[in-house]
Automatic annotation (TrEMBL):
EC numbers: 2.7.1.26
Record-level Gene Ontology MF annotations: ATP binding; riboflavin kinase activity
Recorded metabolic or biological pathway in which this protein acts: Cofactor biosynthesis; FMN biosynthesis; FMN from riboflavin (ATP route): step 1/1
Stretches assigned to the Riboflavin kinase domain: 125-257
Keywords: ATP-binding, Flavoprotein, FMN, Nucleotide-binding, Transferase
Annotated protein name in UniProt: riboflavin kinase
Gene Ontology terms describing biological process: FMN biosynthetic process; riboflavin biosynthetic process
Pfam families registered for this protein in UniProt: Flavokinase (PF01687), Hydrolase (PF00702)
InterPro entries: HAD-like_sf, HAD-SF_hydro_IA, HAD_sf, Riboflavin_kinase, Riboflavin_kinase_bac/euk, Riboflavin_kinase_dom_sf
Amino acid sequence: AVATSSGRPSVAPKLTPHGWASGVFEQVVCGEDVARGKPAPDIFLECARRCGVAPSRCLVVEDAPAGVEAAAKAGMRVLAVPSLRGAEEAYRTAGACEVLKSLLDARPERHGLRPFGDLVGGVAAPVEAWRVAGEVIKGFGRGGKDIGCPTANLPTEALEACPGATSSCGIYVGWASVGDDHTVHKMVMSVGWNPFYQNERKSVEPHLLHTFAEDFYGAELRLVVCGYLRPELDFDSFQALVDAIEGDKANAHRVLDLAPFSGFAADEYLRPPTKKSL
């Protein structure tokens, strides 16, 4: 069900572009259906009434503190996905039982519901594949030297210019090819701010699961991203960071052999551009 303070005329246009949404929601309760909007609990209580479910059995996903407060007042459990970076505490204060960095991190079994059935290999969430390419640039210089995980960094602008690319930070998996080489490699990629190192700028850091004889700065790197492993995390120690990265590499190597991820290795986007003869 959807419980929104928006007026009904504005709700349909928001749901219509998402074809999967039609038929998914049994109830849509809007601002004009109740006397008081959020942060009052009215809209969530009406939603529960229409669904025939006790409020205590409801799990709400919210992106605004007022919505979190409203659902908590209704006696419901609330997952918060903050729309603003760095505002996590405000959502906890409003009553969220869990604050997520992305909806991809939601695990309903933590709240007594059935787990998602589409996690590949039990660890990776499929995402609508997005494709990005750019020139490999020098990064922070610590991947290979300090961590043992050399990365082929892309400019953040490449991600921003990519249709369909996610804005959610985290660790992703997919496939990669470099320059004029037709060989396709497995890859695991960090997108975000790297909280352990407290980066001041967002970075896109793919690690190709292959040992190259030499660096390829300046070459075109093509990526097809198809799965999500986990959110960005801070770590208590350098060794904990290294252990997490090694786990990510192992998981990526394993799940990319499984459907549907394995099929993306043949994606046309990974082929080098055809050179025109003069």
